[in-house]
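agent: user wants the structure for Glutamine-dependent NAD(+) synthetase from Marinomonas fungiae. delegating to structure tool.
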Amino acid sequence: MTIRVAMAQLDMLVGDIKNNTESVIAQSLKARDEQQADVIVFPELTLTGYPPEDLLLRPSLTPRIEMALANILDQVHDIYVVVGYPREIDGELFNCAGVFYQGQILGEYCKQKLPNFQVFDDKRYFQAGTAPCIVNIKGAKVGLSICEDIWHPEPIAQAKGAGAELILNLNASPYHIEKMGVREQLLQRRASENQLPIVYVNYMGAQDELVYEGGSFVVNAQGHKVRQAPWYETGLYCVDFTIAEDRERRLEVLAGDIAPTLDVEASVYQAMVTGLRDYIEKNRFKGIVLGLSGGIDSALSLAVAVDAIGADRVQAVMMPYTYTSSMSLEDAEEEAKLLGVEYSVLPIEPMVTAFMKTLAPEFEGYARDTTEENLQARTRGVTLMAISNKKGYMVLTTGNKSEMAVGYATLYGDMVGGYSVLKDVFKTLVFRLSRYRNTLGYVIPERVITRPPSAELAPDQVDEDSLPSYDVLDSILHMYIEKDMSAEAILASKEFDRETVYRVLRLVDLNEYKRRQAPTGVRVTERGFGRDRRYPITNGWHIGE
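agent: tool returned. relaying tokens verbatim.
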């Protein structure tokens, strides 16, 4: 006998319980009628979308979920539906997975391991379950688990002890650079140590800063991967099981297609495209406007914007000032032409001059400093926000993680915007991603990639006048931000100049107030600014500790 399982790798909208439920119903019927599936498995908290955050505290959550479950039970028959949702049981809220068939709930599992670290806050909302859930599906004993459960040995061993022959694992596992391989190794270990095949179903899409890359997959009882859904694609992906009863009864997996693994540059680039696309579309922006400086950050951001929503919905604006080089003007124009976007040149010198004239009495007696440089950046911010207000376009911020880490950005200036695709991308990775994007089609002029980076806010200015080389800077930042290493630990690990390390770390700590006011953006590392890293602005911590 064969059991066909459809992995529903879908993109849901957080809080839209009604439409999410309709999607579950439609996809279930499609899996039944077009794929001849016996079972369809949806990701964790599908009905609310993930993560619903404090929407879980709304009093109206329970009646909405109960109505959604009733609709699924009423409208879907002749296929087993396994779906995730929050549910109130005896006055407590649980993260649940239910199995529905022929108008009945055959079983309901409550997530046992509640992550409460990095981007996860499960213990803020949910109580932990304690018991396994085993459901008979076409003669097979199927156990349920939810996301974090698979990272711990106990829930799967418990299901095995209760008689499970197959594990269905519902996930909302967000992307970061290191995670693809880690997940696969983890499931291989869980499957082989319990001699159970595991179906791992993940979200595809984005929610604010979190991106879910899909990549649902199946391992057999020996821990070998036998089915791999594509990355960054929604769809229904089927896998077949047979019940074998020769010497010993067991469930065997029939091998299927295995999508190739993406390299780092490809996966990060797709994460940025997915994050930006979902943010624009789910928040119903008409399009994107961004400042195009002729530099590499804005060039890469423009390419991502076009790949996310199309050139016809993207506007690039060059805002030259006295210090803007002819090279920057030429490169920005070429970038816009290569990508086919609307392109405007709006000189800001008249506006900056007006500001300076108005402020002259206040500045009298003070030497020229970064105030005048910041005024240029803030004039550009005002210009972009005016276009945004008038046209309904979202301003895409173009700063990278290296700059945001050390505060090399102007609050209410080049930090103005609604979203950033480079927020969690170090400058050294920006260069790699730019070269990667050009392998898909030449859109970033070579000179933009090779010229020394500059904010062009002063004569002959380059970034490395005030910062270490980006190779050195990013290495220090990686250890301090993502590994939480102290200054002395960083110095002990590599041959860095002591003064440079302490200066960089001091800049990171001083600029927490800026990052707290920065727009949200795509998370691609294990420790991004935002939900991951929550440091107090006001504190007396010493860098060397």
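agent: one observation worth passing along. The mean pLDDT is 93.
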